[in-house]
Amino acid sequence: MIAPLQRALIAAEQPVLRAHGLSMWGYVVLNALDSQPVRTQAALAEFIGADKSRIIGVLDELEGNGLLERTRDPADRRARFVTITDEGRRKRRAAQTDIQRNEDRVLAHLAPADRAAFLRALEVLSTLPATEIIGERQT
């Protein structure tokens, strides 16, 4: 039941993100940077679950649009720090507001008590460590 709902919600987000000039990965990057404004590219990639070479194009696009900045780590010239800009923060929040509006519309199909219970359950489940979700692997 979760997978079809997830796919539908992602499909609903796509036009919203396009209207804000963002890709899904761009939005994911901006969300990660808004919660912790400075990260290395490698730490950012690990945090969002992307291969670090995969996000280079996303970072290039976001940087080109003034939504983030990259600077060299003075302690390690091979590493780069990634920082969200004020414009990146503004754009992320505007996109999130529009996405939230649609989620609220969908959740309005639930009775208030059911909606509250559903959101509490999602909060609990979303904070589980990946190892808890995956469980023990069968060999």
In summary, what is this structure?
By secondary structure, the protein is α+β, with helices and mostly antiparallel strands.
Task: Give keywords.
139 residues; alpha+beta; three-stranded antiparallel β-sheet; 7 helices; WH_DNA-bd_sf; MarR family transcriptional regulator; WH-like_DNA-bd_sf; HTH_MarR-typ
Describe the structure.
The chain is α+β, with helices and mostly antiparallel strands and 139 residues long. It has a single domain, classed as Arc Repressor Mutant, subunit A, CATH 1.10.10.10. The chain is built from seven helices and three strands; from the N terminus they run ααβααββααα. The chain has a three-stranded antiparallel beta sheet with strand order 1-3-2. Helix 1 crosses helix 5. The mean pLDDT is 92.
Low confidence ranges: none
Arrangement of strands in the largest sheet: 1-3-2
What is the CATH architecture annotation?
Orthogonal Bundle
SSE succession: HHEHHEEHHH
Largest sheet: 3 strands, antiparallel
Domain HTH marR-type: 1-127
Protein name: MarR family transcriptional regulator
InterPro entries: HTH_MarR-typ (IPR000835), MarR/SlyA-like (IPR039422), WH-like_DNA-bd_sf (IPR036388), WH_DNA-bd_sf (IPR036390)
Pfam family, one: MarR
